[in-house]
Specification:
Length: about 180
Amino acid sequence: MTIFMKSMMATLWIMSASVLKADSKTQTLLDQLGRVQSMDQANPIVQKLWKEWTAAHKNEKEKNLMAEGIAAMSKGNLDRAEKLFTKLIEVNPNFTEAWNKRATLRFMAWDFEGSLKDVEKVLALEPRHFGALSGLGMIYLRLGDPESALKAYEDLLNIFPSNADAIQKIILLKDYLGINTL
């Protein structure tokens, strides 16, 4: 084996160990989120998760694309943000938060079908992504599918039991659908 090949293998091992460590950290945080009973306890965990997800880039190029996309999104430049997140997804199709950010901006642009497709990808990569599940509920409400919205909010509550918004939406949707909650 050449020195170059050994160096490449070592680099790949370090990169995969880093990804596994980050993934392990998010899974631990998600486990903790599932055990807390109040928003006061949940808020620091939620903040750590958003930080982990947003910073899950593999290199400076991905980091810069994420930062530029978030900046464009916050300025209301949804077209530019979509282009940046799409480029990030092309560079790293496993960057869960890139998909989630694009889903969010597509929702903001009233592209509910596009947002739904992106949320499905987020959930395929991270089934416990509470932000995507919340978005899924909102998408289904906009698409006029209260049964699917209810399912999304129930799934969200299984991951994030202290989420007051999900609790409220479940109560309202069950009432709307005539589902007995007693």
